[in-house]
């Protein structure tokens, strides 16, 4: 394959996925398919509900709808290909398809991280600056923050993509995973990867910065909650943050655990199953996390059902 002045003999990669578990492949396929379809339905439904209910047109739900959108793109970049490979004797992906998959996966994953950070700042403004909340979290600021999240993810991923395209892949071409991820691609490269490893180390500051902003925000939130005298007030303030805090904890702990495990030479089989947690399960769970203990979402669902009931009554 010739492109951009670089020559590589590899035109496709083999994704091993879960092929070393042939007896349970049908079960795994069914489980992943159900998780994907259910999560896709939940995320789309949440986006629709937020759009349709004017009472949910607030900064928190604005960012939540953006999170659901990026989660859909994040999971769709990998799961359909993984599911289709269950039926293939040789689970292949083209070189271009592999690079494109990583680019979309990386862009949406990094954007997710930025949106979670924006949501943490929103919760900080709501609890620590309640009287100034409306002026601080103006629609224009929310729009800029969402756009900034997408642009940051896109810029970081484009930089990685440009560096990745400078590598040569002349064999072997077997990826011991169900997706094209950077660690696996670097292993297969037959050229020096020092520069791109340095770049990844620099970009790790990107994630660390987001984590620090979230921790600082919640530090101030914790102090403000402790100053609330009534137990009911403290409980209400905490409940407004509980869903976001749960999502952040699951997102970062699972992804960090998998990447640290791969760096330290952990079990590749374990890594693959653990990767399912943060690439498939957690993004699809976010709407459920935000709906279970969220009175506003439950009330919006009731209003939507009531509105549909009235419309059906008028038709009949």
Can I get a quick summary?
This protein is mostly helical and 316 residues long.
Structural features:
mainly alpha, Rhopdopsin 7-helix transmembrane proteins, two-stranded antiparallel sheet, 316 residues, disordered N terminus, single chain
Write a structural description.
This protein is mainly alpha-helical and 316 residues long. It has one domain (2-315): Rhodopsin 7-helix transmembrane proteins (Rhopdopsin 7-helix transmembrane proteins). The protein has helices spanning 25-52, 59-76, 79-85, 95-128, 133-136, 139-164, 182-188, 194-227, 231-263, 268-292, 295-315, and strands at residues 2-3, 6-7, 12-15, 92-94, 174-175. The strands form 2 sheets. Strands 4-3-5 form a 3-stranded mixed sheet. It has a two-stranded antiparallel ribbon with strand order 1-2. α1 packs parallel to α10. The longest helix is centred in the middle third of the chain and has 34 residues, at 95-128. It is globular.
Number of strands: 5
Give the averaged pLDDT, no decimals. 85
Number of helices: 11
- Estimate percent helicity: over 70%
Distance between the termini: 64 Å
Q: What is the CATH superfamily?
A: Rhodopsin 7-helix transmembrane proteins
Strand content: under 5%
Question: What top-tier CATH class fits best?
Answer: Mainly Alpha
Give the number of domains.
1
For the biggest sheet, the summary is:
3 strands, mixed
- Determine Rg (CA atoms, Å): 22 Å
Uncertain runs with pLDDT below 50, 5 residues or more? Answer: 1-6
CATH architectural type:
Up-down Bundle
Which geometry do the CA atoms define? globular
